[in-house]
């Protein structure tokens, strides 16, 4: 029998030994355990399997050398079998268990954080290719997996279900929060974003951007117009009643998706138009150039402050504000003339203030000059 034929038989025997080990020592235990016990058993058996592979690598050193020409190793074969035999059966259960704990955390319940973090890492490790090694940690004495992690398996079996879970969870939450006032909705949304970012940093940093993007789509992008245009507690109400903190919070939330800033701009423009027309429609104000110009300029200063300080000088909001002020000034034909009268008056005041001598100067002017 040729050497290659012998190696093939040895590889088949090796694979059968690994499969038998997983079936008799691991699979039944994992199928019977639930939730935290399931995570504990999975971690324990993962570590045992690494130890088992370490000794199998030594026992099958000849096979390992012969496999190099096929770009596989005894260890990489061990992880292939772990994936195809064990995780094909318990992987969905692991994903479901992890999602269960994430939702418990969102409900402010306690979860086994360290165990969750370890189990999430398995999805990356199972995607590794040929270059896998098992080394003994000097401090703990445990055998550690060393490889260049591959995200393909992780994205398919963990990240994709996680994204769908996030979509469903926050779509439901958004619908619940919409029964509240807009400021209350915004506070819940901001808190949930902070919470989700912290969770991503703990468990799945590599997916953080995608997770937050999905969450923003559900709790910011989709309900943005409905929130902004709410007649009782929306943007118009906040601006008209000078609710600074509420305006700051909703701008912070909408900044998560810059496309939603347009809804704020629309309501700011509407408020400027309504307020501007109120000056023109008020007989006491509209017939007095000085009072009219004073009201308009004070209003302009107030809106400048909101846009510059609360809305962080956002260019879209600045443009909307300036354009709407120009529009309502053009709609009231006397505006330009009234502002001109006001400017003339301010100019005269300034000139008189500049040319009028002070009491001290007048006293000096009455003193006789020295001989």
Beta strand % = under 5%
Q: Radius of gyration in whole Å, from Cα?
A: 35 Å
Number of helical runs?
Answer: 17
Structural class: mainly alpha
Count of β-strands: 2
Note the overall shape: rod-shaped
Low-pLDDT ranges? none
Biggest sheet layout: 2 strands, antiparallel
From N to C, what is the helix and strand string? HHHHHEEHHHHHHHHHHHH
Terminal CA distance reads 136 Å
Overall pLDDT score: 85
Query: Largest beta sheet: what is the strand line-up?
Result: 1-2
Helix content: over 70%
Structure description:
With 371 residues, the chain is an all-alpha fold. The chain is built from 17 helices and two strands. The protein has helices at 3-32, 35-59, 61-67, 74-106, 113-125, 151-177, 182-203, 208-221, 224-228, 235-240, 244-254, 261-281, 283-286, 289-310, 315-331, 335-355, 359-366; strands at residues 132-136, 143-147. Strands 1-2 form a two-stranded antiparallel sheet. Strand 1 and strand 2 (143-147) form a beta hairpin. Helix 2 packs across helix 5 (113-125) and helix 4 runs parallel beside helix 6. The model has no long low-confidence stretch (mean pLDDT 85).
Helix/strand layout:
Elements: H1 3-32, H2 35-59, H3 61-67, H4 74-106, H5 113-125, E1 132-136, E2 143-147, H6 151-177, H7 182-203, H8 208-221, H9 224-228, H10 235-240, H11 244-254, H12 261-281, H13 283-286, H14 289-310, H15 315-331, H16 335-355, H17 359-366
Antiparallel strand pairs: 1-2
Helix pairs in contact: 1-2, 1-4, 2-4, 2-5, 4-6, 5-6, 6-8, 7-8, 7-11, 12-14, 12-15, 14-15, 14-16
Which properties best describe this structure?
single chain; two-stranded antiparallel ribbon; 17 helices; 77% helix
